[in-house]
Amino acid sequence: MRIVIIEDEPLTAEDLAETLQQVDSAIEIEAVLASVKSAVAYFQVNEFPDLIFSDIQLGDGLSFEIFKAVPTSTPVVFCTAYDAYALDAFKANGIDYVLKPFSSASINETLQKYKKLQQNLSKPEPSIKNILDLFENRLSQKRSSILVYQRDKIIPLPVAEIAISYVENQLTRVVCFDGKSYVVNHTLDELESMLAPQFFRANRQYLVNHKAVKEASQYFGRKLHVALTIPFQDEVIVSKAKSPKFLDWLANQ
């Protein structure tokens, strides 16, 4: 079975590739693509594989845009941390998904579904356009608050008060403009999907509010160093791959 992985986080892509080959040693990973642009370029000159595993939100856009640019009937499995609304959208359109963080069991289940799909050639092809439309509508909806935890209290916190969110000791925290910090019961991936486009995922550890960015400066290896409007103990660095997208977001948000 020939598989292409579309994922902008190298460690996640490596983990997925290893898991796939552990589940089925006959699997051949033909390519690992890290952006919408590189994936479109690849599929314009290469044959589509038997199956595609793809993240949803890449550094330069939604992965659905790839399949609008280069239409295919190849089954696509989306690796996602999105909420139940989004998962219902997948089910309604016949596209499978695996939740992050994935496991050998979830990957194996997905591969079994793919094999059954191949045996049922009369099954309607999934509509990538419908999925893209649903996600664009979802992303355009602004969430006004999230729930945070402080000792035994559960507090609705206005999104506008959040300056930055980050991961520390496997807990996701948010820091407000007034300096207060809270634990939230969401992964950073989930917060990214809930709070976009006002917030930008600088890297695996930080999600930054546009209003919290004081300035950005050139850093080693064509990365960007982000200075915040609030005191913060860590350096926020945007990777080389995400820097163009970050600057576009900074200018246009």
From TrEMBL:
PANTHER family: REGULATOR OF RPOS, RESPONSE REGULATOR RECEIVER
Source taxon at top rank: Bacteria
Keyword Phosphoprotein among record annotations: yes
Protein name (database record): LytTR family transcriptional regulator
SUPFAM superfamilies: CheY-like
Listed InterPro entries: CheY-like_superfamily, LytTR_DNA-bd_dom, Sig_transdc_resp-reg_receiver, WalR-like
4-aspartylphosphate PTM sites in chain numbering: 55
Pfam families noted in UniProt: LytTR (PF04397), Response_reg (PF00072)
Gene Ontology terms: biological process: regulation of DNA-templated transcription
Annotated ranges, domain Response regulatory: 2-115
SMART domains: LytTR, REC
Domain HTH LytTR-type residue range list: 146-252
Sample GO molecular function, one term: transcription cis-regulatory region binding
Keywords: DNA-binding, Phosphoprotein
GO annotations of cellular component type: cytosol; protein-DNA complex
Source organism per UniProt: Pontibacter korlensis
